[in-house]
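Table 4 source record.
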Amino acid sequence: MPGVSGLQRMKELMQELRDKPLTQIGTHKIDYTRDYMPGTRTCMADGKSEPMELKGQNVMYYELEGGTTLYHPSVRHRAEGQGLHHGQRARTRPRPQKRSRL
């Protein structure tokens, strides 16, 4: 999303994630959501929140079942051979192989 309009759209999308919290991404259930704007970590099962030390950043961090983590924006994830990326829809794909340097 290039330019000023892209930045505005990203802010709108982030606000939508805060207003309508996700409960799962793809087939992965979300256990906890960390919202770095107010600095809270919320349990999705009971809705209870606890304060975090860091705050003031427009970043969401998702703790998925099984210990997987996911950030948004610039969502990147690595866990047990899979990469999970979030855009309009989450999808899974195999982790790229590391190239060895000779």
